[in-house]
Structure formats: C-alpha cells, structure tokens
Write a structure and sequence with these properties.
Blueprint lengths: L6 H33 L6 H29 L2 H17 L25 H8 L2 E5 L6 H12 L2 E5 L16 E2 L5 H25 L9 E5 L2 H7 L3 H11 L5 E7 L13 H7 E5 L1 H10 L4 H10 L3 E4 L2 E4 L10 E2 L11 E2 L7 H12 L7 H7 L8 H13 L4 E3 L6 E3 L3
Parallel strand pairs: 1-5, 1-6, 2-3, 2-4, 4-5
Antiparallel strand pairs: 6-7, 7-8, 9-10, 11-12
Length: 416
Amino acid sequence: MTSSLHPSQLHQHLQMYAYAKWSYWGSLIVSLSLLSLGVCQKSGVKPWVLASAVGTLEVGRKHRQTAKLLQESLGDIDRGSRLNYQAWVKTQTQPTAQLALTVGSFNEDWKPENLITDPVEYIQKKQKHVALVGGTGDGKSTFTQYLSSKIGGRVIVYDSDAKPDDWTWLSQADVIGRKGNFKAIDTAMGNDLKTLEDLVELRGEGGDNAIAGRERFLIAEEFPILVDECDNATPWIKRHAKRGRRYQQFICALAQNDTAENFGLQGDKDTLYSCFVLVRLGQFGRDHARTKIKDPQLEQWLKAGGKKRFMVDDSPCELDLSNWRTGATAQPENSQGGNDQVQILPSAMNEYEQFILDWGWQHPGEVLKARILLQASRLFERMQPDEVRIIFASMADRGLGEVKGNGDRLGWRWSK
C-alpha cells in the first residue's frame, strides 16, 4: 500500500499512525494511574475516578484500533518510513523532485489465464453470497445493480447514508435507513431473520414450490457501520450466509475492507470464505493481486483496465458496465437462447414498467400474473390487480411484450 501513496500522503499517514500508537499507550498509563488512585479514595469520590479511568481506557482502545487500521493500510512501516525520509531529503535538495514507482514495461495484449467474463455465472455456480469490497467511485452501486438484475428477486437496500439520488433504480420503499435511521434497519433485519425461519418451515412442509415467488436480494451498504449500530446485523449475516441461498434469500454485503471483522464475522474467517464470493474493486483488487497473489503483471493489467477489471476471489474479471442501462439497446434472451436487439428508451418508461420488463428478461417465456407481481415488490403493494393488468395491456400496445389471457386471468410475458 505504501507505494501507492503520494509522499505527502505517506507522511500524513505515518504521523497519524505515530499519534494513534502513542495516544493508546498514554491512555493506558493514565487509566492505570487513575485506577490505582481510585482505590485509595473515599467512597464518594471513588466512582468518579473509576469512571474517568474507564473513559480514558475506552479512548485508548479507539486509538489502538485506529493505529491497527493505519498499519494495515501502510503495510511495511519500516519501508514506509524510509520512503518518507527519502521524500523529505529530496524536498530539501531538489524542491521539484517527486518519488516515482518504477515498474517494468507492461504488455497491453497480455491476458490472465484464469480470466472470468461472467461473474454472475461464477457466483451462481459457487452457490454463495457476495461480499463486495470497494472504495468511493469504484462502481459498487453499478455492480450491485447489475448483480441484482441477473439474480432476480425483490431488492431491498439497507443504507444509512443514502442520498436522494442513490439507488434511483429502486422505489423509495425499498431503501431502508435513510438519514441515519439505524432503528429502521435493525427492525427490518430482525424481520428478515423471522422471514428466514418462516421459509424454513414452509419448505419443510411443502418443498421448494411452497417458497416460490419469495426470492429476495438483500443489499447491506457499509456493513461495518451496521455491525456497530444494529444488534441484528451480526446474526443477520451469519444466518443468511449459511442458510439463505437454500431459501432464495441472497445477500450482498458492502465494505471498504475484506477482513472478517468488517463483515461482523470476528474470528470466523471460514464463514467469510466458505459462504461468500469476495469481489474486490479498484485499488482493493490491485492490492490483492500484489500482496496475496504476488503477481505484479496482474496488478498492472487490473490498473490498465480501470473500473471494468477487478478480482472475483482469486480470479481476475473483466466486465464493462460503463454503458450498462445507460444506452438504448438491451439484449434479453429469448426462449430459443438467442439475443434480440430491442430498442428501449428509459425516459419513456416509468419505474413500474421497468420492473416488469426486468422480470420478463429474467424469466423468458414465463407469464407474469398480477398476484405474482404484487408479492414480488413493495413497489406495487398499493395497487389493485386490475391496475396492474392495465399496465400489462399498455406495455403490450407499445410492443413491450405481449398479454396472455383475458379478464382477471390476463398476464404478461416478454416476447420478441
């Protein structure tokens, strides 16, 4: 990580690391001193002294955690210190000089042997959930949207920091926790656990048909924050990790680090790696290629591809999502397995029609009925079945699919 930091950033990170480290030791010493002092005090003063000791110890604990995170980001501290010293010397002798990372020449035609071009196929084959790691601007939201459209099910997002223009491809009712409403997230996660229990019972009594139409795609943004603020977050991820896929409850947890602790799985790395596919975007993918796989050429290949190249577990992946759903051409699969070029103008469709169209692309040849749609998404929960059938007929009149049946048996399906 140190080689990717600008000298000014490296100096700042080292200063913060040193401050956090010595603050921790200072807090520990002060806390022990207060504890010793509190033992000798009168009963009226003793609680205040002991409380001060505990508070100081808690401050030290947080500084220690900060130092640990900074140490992980800096990597080799000694090497970082040497680089920092070299940068300082150069600023004194050559004010315009800059540190540069020397790398070998990169062959633009080179491709990894184990390249993945369809991450969804890989995820489905593994029958796992997804732990998505990436920083701001790495394309986490776009990749999550792409993943949800391919896997299907009712989409629910837990995001305490969501802005009004985030997750615009969902209805407002499907984004829970806006404006830091952790109570709403905690309650919803508790309901998810109850839903999972109900599905276990239903499937045990009636088999897979009993849980058909109850598929869900659950997205948890910035999961480390949810772990700190929501009591249900840790049991939520653990139970869904081990049993969710069997009951069509797919989860995608997002974080900015790939440690088990960040996903609420302290001391349980086995669950992280056995139940999740780790997708690492941006710098996180390049760091994994360099530090874990130890392949400088792969690191450069990832860097040259920008957002379209990332790591899926230990395999490199190339997938260009820059124009996904922003252009006018979509290619749903037809029942014969071919691809139809369909011109769709998103501006001419509302969110209800887009949801129906997505369902048709994901279920080619199947007939969508109003009752199925009303169960599939909260987007339609206030609609009457007749209102849904009117939308079906309107879409068919415009060439978007076709209707099947009449009256209260009228349904819609995607067609050429």
